[in-house]
């Protein structure tokens, strides 16, 4: 089955055919480093991390570029507010960004260029646009002539008449047309500047991605991604700059992830529903955040709430419980998936990276394997039926490990995860290991005294809190239930 990608440009799913198979080149817009990252940044990061992982899983040699915007009005304003140098602000929040993405389990891109390190490439592109009649200099700034590009609006499906009707009257009188956008901004007092053929200044936001993607991926590359909020004007302007500069279509497949709302409201600091990644990581396991965000298709909006992530954690724990038990039974969890499971997983993911259906499939596998485990408990270990069920269980568990890994899940040691999960479950139930041990001992004494009513009360009371006792020939063991 071919891999289909929904192309924002054509508004339809298209078969992914890279320019130079099996090589695939991908550029994703990173962050402007002026503040801590929030849940919206987490979604964009995780979405394209999964796309990167899955393309590699599928056998492509992927070269992945994600930029960092380290000079911008927001950075300058934040530096002014804090009384810091703009470069110190950029450096601080670049480090915070990396810490957040690493904590969420994102793979580092193959290249991560910074805007300030690519001024020559930007200046060269701006010069080519002026030479071709698509840009002009005015009082030390340079602007792109939007009306010089007949296809402007083809990504966002906006037309020039509508844009003109909605154009604001801007204070900047150096522009010839309200629609034109800055490629180079003339120096202002107190702001950082670089030399250019038009005088001191700094680059506009849009030009950086066009220049850097061309440097690292060529004039035309396979995939360009980012959040839906970047479709207009950022990516629309990228198309205009790149195409007018080179004469070539810059990107074959445009991909955009949907927004995140908070309890069905737009995230806003003024509403008090603004959650940074650091806030969330204090409350939730990073893979629970990832599992929650992948539970909806990447193009769909997703509503965030503590309850939804808590449910994702319970689901995650059920997977890890399976993997931990398989490990205890001697399973090689690195053995890989069976062909049938792999094919089904790929069939679902090949439909525009549909992580929601892929996770539903893994949940189905989880139920199947837990049933096999339950059946095994009723069998004699020396029997052929037990050996058959054990084979199904360990092979299926290895499959879940590998397929989940393609989504960036189940990357923690299962035994270590479950040790912490059981401890958390006891804490949530108002118990400690010491108090649980005391209750188990009390129950044993009650049974020895034939006070079965009290013994059952202890067992049932713990079960109601999700702590299960198991009477075995070797003694009493306990487990936790994640429901």
Give a verbal description of the structure:
The chain has three domains: 4-134 and 145-167 and 205-262, Rossmann fold (3-Layer(aba) Sandwich); 314-418, Four Helix Bundle (Hemerythrin (Met), subunit A) (Up-down Bundle), CATH 1.20.120; 429-480, no CATH class. The radius of gyration is 28 Å and the shape is elongated. It has 16 helices and 15 strands. It is of the alpha/beta class. The two termini are 36 Å apart. Strands 4-3-9-10 form a four-stranded parallel β-sheet, with helices on both faces. The model has no long low-confidence stretch (mean pLDDT 93). Helix 4 (119-131) packs across helix 7, helix 10 packs across helix 13 (384-405) and helix 12 (355-376) runs antiparallel to helix 13 (384-405). Strand 9 (221-227), helix 7 and strand 10 (251-257) form a beta-alpha-beta unit. It has helices at residues 39-57, 73-82, 86-103, 119-131, 160-165, 205-217, 231-246, 277-283, 286-293, 306-328, 339-349, 355-376, 384-405, 414-428, 433-448, 452-464; strands at residues 4-7, 12-15, 23-28, 61-66, 135-138, 141-144, 181-186, 201-203, 221-227, 251-257, 260-262, 265-266, 302-304, 467-472, 475-480.
Identify the notable features of this structure and list them briefly.
single chain, 483 residues, alpha/beta, Rossmann fold, Four Helix Bundle (Hemerythrin (Met), subunit A), 3 domains, 15 strands
Shape annotation: elongated
Write down the Rg: 28 Å
Mean pLDDT: 93
Fraction of residues in helices? 40-55%
Topology:
Blueprint: E1 4-7, E2 12-15, E3 23-28, H1 39-57, E4 61-66, H2 73-82, H3 86-103, H4 119-131, E5 135-138, E6 141-144, H5 160-165, E7 181-186, E8 201-203, H6 205-217, E9 221-227, H7 231-246, E10 251-257, E11 260-262, E12 265-266, H8 277-283, H9 286-293, E13 302-304, H10 306-328, H11 339-349, H12 355-376, H13 384-405, H14 414-428, H15 433-448, H16 452-464, E14 467-472, E15 475-480
Helix pairs in contact: 2-3, 4-6, 4-7, 6-7, 9-10, 10-13, 10-14, 11-12, 12-13, 15-16
